[in-house]
Design a protein that fits this description.
Shape: elongated
Strand content: 25-35%
Helix content: 25-40%
Number of strands: 17
Number of domains: 3
CATH class of the largest domain: Mainly Beta
CATH topology of the largest domain: HSP40/DNAj peptide-binding domain
Distance between the termini: 74 Å
CATH architecture of the largest domain: Sandwich
Number of helices: 8
Length: 373
């Protein structure tokens, strides 16, 4: 069984007591909805599909599911003592750690990895408590940018899902002004002990999240979790010339820190959407423009759109061949002090059919020019 702190029942949307048929039915339905073939180019759907498969792999195997359920009842995956499926509280950083390492307990049928993930996280919380306020997590966000906005710059609205300390209860999980009582589960110690084989270990109490006390009334805003999930609306400035893979960091726009710590950063990765007319190659812009047979043979002047919004007059010399490439200098992408050019490739459109008189004149012309057909 792999390391995880995920609620596999919640991922599949089934109750903890669901039978094998219900789990199989939920998996098939979700897998069909989130399959990458049904969601091309959607990384969120691909990640969701992976999670669904992981959850089904554990819950459809009786032995793995039994081990998972035992650890879940002990609060190993952030569940409050025995409250199946309810979201867990964030452990109190003042809790004590046992100092025991489970890194080498490979003989417990996968329990070593699970224990390690639980208690290593507890030690991190304790270290964080000793060092004072903790900085918030960074958030990474993939932003799709229209081609013209990426080329010339602009602003785009985004909505970022964030998990933050509940402002109503200050992260305590108790309603403002509520009374607090000693935790019945740990008798106020904030820790509980349990054993596996010859080992006895202590861990933060899942009933009170290691606080040693419980509120008389849970906070209505967060349901006692101490955290809230919400969307943060922002306007993102897109610098001119960004390309797919370009990133920008917005300092302090990540998740809020705990105990007064500084917030994390928001890292935005840009993905530039294709344009129906313009193509980009480095700093240069490429376009295809169609001309007719007379323009190609006799020469002409055509107006070509550019990313600046204005049209440039391009001279087509007589006898221009299909595929000829013309350069319009200085009409490409401007970035880092460099500006590219725009390249125009001409395509010659031929009439699909000719009238009788048109065909006669074309034959006369071909004969006079010595052309064969």
């Amino acid at each position: 069984m792999t390391k995880t702190d995920k609620d596999y029942y919640a991922i599949l949307g089934v109750a903890p007591g669901a039978d094998e048929a219900a789990i199989k039915s939920a998996y098939r339905k979700l897998a069909k909805e989130c399959h990458p073939d049904a969601n091309p180019g959607n990384p969120a759907a691909a990640e969701r599909f992976r999670e669904i498969g992981e959850a089904n792999g554990v819950l459809s195997d009786p032995a793995q599911r039994a081990r998972y359920d035992r650890m879940r009842r002990l609060g190993a995956f952030g569940m409050r003592g025995g409250a199946a499926g309810s979201p867990g509280r964030r452990p109190d950083p003042q809790q004590r750690s046992s100092g025991f390492s489970f890194d080498d307990l490979g003989g417990l049928g996968g329990f070593g990895d699970i224990f390690s993930s639980i208690f290593d996280r507890g030690r991190k919380e304790e270290t964080r408590a000793r060092s004072g306020p903790a900085r918030g997590n960074n958030i990474e966000y993939a932003l799709e940018v229209p081609f013209m906005v990426a080329a010339t710059g602009g602003k785009l609205p985004i909505s970022i899902p964030v998990t933050e300390e509940c402002a109503t209860c200050g992260g305590s999980g108790g309603a403002p002004g509520t009374s607090w009582k000693k935790c019945d589960e740990c008798r106020g110690s904030g820790t509980v002990s349990f054993g596996q084989g010859g080992f006895a270990v202590s861990r933060p109490c899942p009933a009170c999240a290691g606080r040693g006390r419980q509120p008389g009334k849970l906070c209505d805003a967060c349901g006692g979790d101490g955290r809230v999930h919400q969307n943060r609306n922002l306007q993102v400035t897109v610098p001119a010339g960004v390309d797919t893979g370009s990133k920008v960091r917005l300092t302090g726009q990540g998740e809020r820190g705990s105990s007064g710590g500084a917030p994390g950063d928001l890292v935005i990765a840009f993905k530039v959407l294709p344009h129906r007319f313009f193509r980009r190659e480095g700093h240069d812009i490429h376009v295809d423009v169609a001309i007719n047979l007379a323009q190609a043979m006799l020469g002409s002047r055509i107006r070509v759109s550019t990313i600046s919004g204005r049209k440039v007059v391009l001279r087509i010399p007589p006898g221009t061949q299909p595929g000829t490439l013309f350069r319009i200098r200085g009409q490409g992408i401007s970035r880092e002090g460099k500006r590219g050019d725009q390249f125009v490739r001409v395509k010659v459109d031929l009439p699909e059919s000719l009238g009788t008189e048109q065909e006669r004149k074309l034959r006369d012309f071909a004969e006079s020019a010595g052309l064969r057909w």
